[in-house]
Each structure stands twice: as C-alpha cells, then as structure tokens.
Amino acid sequence: MKLSLPDEECIVGLSPMDDITDLPFRQLCKEFGADLLITEFIASEALNRDAEKSLRKMRFTPEQRPLGIQIFGADEEELLRCLEVVEQAEPDFIDINWGCPVRKVAGRGAGSGILQDVPKMLRITASIVKKAHLPVSVKTRLAYNADSMMVTDFAEALQDCGIAALSIHGRTKNQMYSGSADWRPIAEVKSNPRIHIPIFGNGDITTAAQAVESKRCYGVDGILIGRAAIGNPWIFEQCQRLFHGEQEREVTVAERVEVCRRHLQMAIEFKGERTAIFEMRKHYGNYFRGLYNFKPFRLALVATPTAEATFEVLNRIQEHYQEVQ
C-alpha cells in the first residue's frame, strides 16, 4: 500500500521521541514547516488495555497530516491486536518502531532489540502489513551491533514484507546515541536499484545546513530530525528556506518567548499543569540556546512548580534581553 507524501524534493519530518513529540509540539513543528509528523511511540500492550496515556498519544489535529502513529512491542499477537485501536484514530499511516535502543524497550526484544532476531522482525512486519488497512512504515537502526546483519542486507526483505517506507537511524542499537551517525549504509540502501520505497535518513542532523548537505551527499527521499528539534521548531522553517534557495532568518528573543509560552499553554491544556511543567523542562535549554548569561533563567525555569511562576520567568526573560539588546 503506497504512502501519500508531500511533493517535495526532500521531505523534512519530525522523528518520534517519547514525551517530546506530543500533540502540542507536533503542532508547532507543523506550523514551522515540518512535512511529516510521527507520534511518540506507543506500546501495543497499553493500547490493548485502553491505557489513557497511550490513547492520548494518538490524538492529533487535521492540520498535522500527513501523520503516522508509531507502535512498538515484541509480541506479534499484541501488535496485531492493537491495529484496530490505531486505525480507529485514522492516521495516514502506521509506523513500526524497530529502532528504539533504550533498555526498557530493547531489553525485552522490542525496538532495536529485535535486530538480534531479524527473521522474527520480518515475520512480524509482514503480519502487520497483511492485517493493516493503512500503509505501514518501519523505523530501524543499522544493526544490533557492529558484528550483526546490517540494514543493507535486510532492507530489501522489509520492502518485500510490503512496507510503504523505511526510516534508518545511522547507528547500531549498541551505540545508543554515542559516537557519530553513519549515513553511508543509508545511502547504500537508497542507491540499491531494487529498492523502490521512500528511504528516510535520521541521526545527527543538528542544523538546516546539515540537512541540505545530507540530501546532497546521500540522496535520501527525506530526513527525520529528532533531538535538534527539541525546543527548536524553527529548524523546519530553516530547512525549508535552504531547500528553496532562501536564507535562514534570525529568530528574535521575543519570538522565542512567545512560542515557548504558547507551547507551555498548549501542553497544559493537553495533559494538565503538573505533567506539562515537568515535560517542558526538556525544551527550555534549546528554546533559549545561545543567549548570553542565560543560566540563572534556565535554573528558574526548571525549578518553577507552577504555570503561573513559569510564565512569570518567561516575562522576565523577554524584559531582560530587550534591555541588553
């Protein structure tokens, strides 16, 4: 089943990240130019028992299309059972997470843990594609470790399973997020004449210039940006500007404060004040990266226990940097 994608020379999408790529943050990334969005990963078992938090992760707005809901798990029956719940949300596609390296996921054979058993991964993938009524994509890593079967060897087999697109992070499971992402195997998959599905690259894209260079060097159909987007939805606008021959623009302190304030407000409305206050702390450093002598404000932001206090700190940030400009 074909995946309907924007008609762009290079699609720039938001890579799924747990407790990061929720509905409010995806909305901001879309407004700043992200072509493709994917939800946080959701455990198949949690969906099958109607866990409230997991069901909430599937929510999205019409403006966020095209959007995929990402699922993970190690049990084939559980993964197949959750498809009905996922399809009721009516995403544009379903994404299988065969790439998460964290212990709580990979340690039980889900995420990139399944790369120790590639035949099992292929069997489950084929079963999901067969049962699903929507296009299915896969996100994975290069291999389990440096001595394991590489994605260049099993990418064709994944395509034969019927997947509509393949996203590859340029590290092995054992690398976690250390070292540098290697995009050469991703390029090898893309250049394989037998590969006809879209290939997306992921890993170490920290600037718009790197996204453009990666497209030029590795020829991928799209790029997924992960950690560099945290607290920085502008990276998608910057990518779009460079891909269309325009110059990047400077983001003012006033705009940073305004978007951060809006992000916090949407997060509070979406998941409640307590959770929003805690999860937003992951974004503040990047929202205000590079500002001179920002540390006291950053410490205040991560220490404030209430929305009212946080909004007050944001007001002080804007006032302070207007004075020093």
Task: Summarize the helices and strands and which ones pair or pack.
Blueprint lengths: L10 E4 L8 H9 L4 E3 L3 E2 H5 L3 H6 L9 E6 L3 H13 L4 E6 L4 H4 L11 H14 L4 E6 L9 H10 L4 E5 L14 H8 L7 E4 L5 H11 L3 E4 L8 H10 L9 H19 L1 H8 L3 H4 L7 H9 L3 H18 L1
Parallel strand pairs: 1-2, 1-9, 2-4, 3-4, 4-5, 5-6, 6-7, 7-8, 8-9
Number of self-contained structural domains: 2
Q: How many separate helices?
A: 15
What string, H for helix and E for strand, traces the elements in order? Answer: EHEEHHEHEHHEHEHEHEHHHHHH
- CATH C-level class of the largest domain: Alpha Beta
Classify the beta-strand content into a percent band: 5-15%
Number of strand segments:
9
Tell me, briefly, the overall form. globular
The parts where pLDDT drops under 50 for at least 5 residues are none
Task: Please give the order of strands in the largest beta sheet.
Answer: 1-2-4-5-6-7-8-9
Mean pLDDT: 96
- CATH H-level homologous superfamily name of the largest domain: Aldolase class I
- CA radius of gyration is 20 Å
Strand count, sense and closure of the main sheet? 8 strands, parallel, barrel
Distance between the termini: 54 Å
Instruction: Find the CATH topology of the largest domain.
Output: TIM Barrel
Q: Percent helix among the residues?
A: 40-55%
Structural class: alpha/beta
CATH architecture of the largest domain: Alpha-Beta Barrel
